[in-house]
Amino acid sequence: MSENVLEDMNDLMLQRREKLNQLREDKEKAFADKYLPSHHAKDVEADFAELEEKEVKLTGRLMAIRTHGKASFADLADMSGQVQLYVKQNNIGEDRYQFFQELDLGDLVGITGTVFKTNRGQVSVRVSSFELLTKSLRPLPEKFHGLKDKDIRYRQRYLDLIVNPDVKETFVIRSKIIREMRKFLEEKGFLEVETPMMHPIAGGATARPFITHHNTLDMDLYLRIAPELYLKRLIVGGFEKVFEINRNFRNEGMSYKHNPEFTTMELYQAQADYHDMMELTENLVNDLAEKVLGTSKVEYEETEIDFTPAWERITMVEAVKKYTGLDFSEFESDAEAVEAAKSIGIEVSSKMTYGEILNEVFEERVEDKLIQPTFIMDYPIEVSPLAKKIEADPRFTYRFEAFVYGREIANAFSELNDPEDQRERFEKQTAMREAGDEEAQMMDYDFIRALEYGMPPTGGLGIGIDRLIMLLTDSSTIRDVILFPTMRPERNE
């Protein structure tokens, strides 16, 4: 921002503070106690036939003022939208009209008036009295240029919400999506629960954790990377269907689809498998689209996405063959997989296993091709330490991920409930961690103990709510659907 702009901004702020001082000298309240509205802005137009020539009380922020001698028009914005005000000296008195003219854009006011239509047919409110509720000490962004700087928009979300109504609508839709998700699951008999956000052991997913410290216990704790292991303990304890909607924290890279703290819905159902989870996933997402947006077909970045069940189901091996020509079902050794990957230009280590290489090829060459909703099934065991293995081919597990527009939105398993197998996989993860892999999982002896008491056959599902909302609101970055995304601290001016 140039020095001239900063200087102008400071001048404008100084003017507003001078007005504040004058208000105090005149014994005028600049920060009122309360003003109860009778309606919202959108009600005035929506219910005009009922409200015409009737009195209403509104509160909101002045977004525009157009003065024409002894009468003014103003735009008042509240949570619901905007309405036009008509303020005339003859209606409110000369002194109050003079006071109104000294108000600034951004000031919060309460008004009383009657609903009418102007000669041009615009529904408006003829103001009979008003009060200043809060003096705004900072000017809003200039009307015709608005707030474009994304760094400012995300850091000062309050300002973004004031001047960009479509942003507010995105978060209204977000709230509706989460509400409908709860309703869908509760109607299917799922119980919403809460599990710890601070864990003594980082587990339930492959990710680098954030570390904090508990002073009284003098011990390090990890902000949770997933609630999975606690939710499965509840299945062991006898709950049959549980879900949790809450934050996870992962200390890893940031991008248009990654934020260090993010919201997920995770659920577990006894006597279910990953086929049941596929059916539940596609029905849930389709229900959300229909209930919140009114359609199963949504536009995302000028591409129509059809959430209508049934979504395509294809194994990872089949998907890699379809999009790269490599048939991993023909490879019998790690070395063959290494050479195959290198043959299409993917650099992999000779120390990598068959399953790790298959997953790498899939991520590099297949993911971005999956535009319409698709279930990728049967993941390698190396990247699925909590999923039940396929007995007919133990290199793979009963696991799927759901992809839309090249992005994973859901992850699900037929859950591993064999405690001895789980212990062996934790030991392999521990060895990887000791070898320097900071994302490998830790040994969780209490979870093994829980499995030893017996966990029924169980299906588990996790859905990334932020990514799903990106798709349903046509948002290009995850920061557009998180009210306060993680940012670097502001540099002190």
From TrEMBL:
Mg(2+) 2 binds at residue 408. It comes from Halanaerobium salsuginis. Gene3D superfamilies: Bira Bifunctional Protein, Domain 2, Nucleic acid-binding proteins. Residues 171-489 form the Aminoacyl-transfer RNA synthetases class-II family profile domain. InterPro entries: Aa-tRNA-synt_II, aa-tRNA-synth_II, aa-tRNA-synth_II/BPL/LPL, Lys-tRNA-ligase_II, Lys-tRNA-ligase_II_bac/euk, Lys-tRNA-ligase_II_N, Lys-tRNA-synth_II_C, NA-bd_OB-fold. Binds 3 Mg(2+) ions per subunit. Belongs to the class-II aminoacyl-tRNA synthetase family. One of its GO terms (molecular function) is lysine-tRNA ligase activity. Transmembrane segments: none annotated. It catalyses: tRNA(Lys) + L-lysine + ATP = L-lysyl-tRNA(Lys) + AMP + diphosphate. GO terms for biological process: lysyl-tRNA aminoacylation. PANTHER family: LYSINE--TRNA LIGASE, CHLOROPLASTIC_MITOCHONDRIAL, LYSYL-TRNA SYNTHETASE. Keywords: Aminoacyl-tRNA synthetase, ATP-binding, Coiled coil, Cytoplasm, Ligase, Magnesium, Metal-binding, Nucleotide-binding, Protein biosynthesis. Its main location: cytoplasm. This is Lysine--tRNA ligase. Signal peptide: none annotated.
